[in-house]
Amino acid sequence: MPRRAAPALSRHRLAHPGWPSYAENAEGYGLTRATMEWFWGHYLADPARDAAHPHAAPIKAASLAGLPPALVTTAEYDPLRDEGEAYAAKLAAAGVTVACTRWLGLNHGFYFWAGKVDRCTTAMAEAAGWLREVFAGRAPGWTKAER
At 132, which helix (H) or strand (E)? Predict the structure, then answer.
């Protein structure tokens, strides 16, 4: 990836951010390890060179201090669950306001089911509520929850 200044962010949100969950949930829950590898290979010009760049994987940044408030949502059956939660913890350790929720019983992409599956609708409503609070200048502090 070309080196350039980090983009100016006012807010950021990570959903479905591998770690143990990458192996635990590699098959059978929609998003597979093979699909993730396919996406990664198409996302980066040179995966071997670019995978550690913080623009590709923000968790790899030396420091996350100064980033805007973040909402990180993960799903119990998501290959990216553990990485997302580790990212939330690293943000909190850097002093960033962050909320992190693991949605139990759900898999990657569960927001697509909002309006069809009650828990997914609840998750979408909570994410929208968090954004309303942040945009109104009332960012909730660090929370870590399972629902």
Answer: helix 118-135
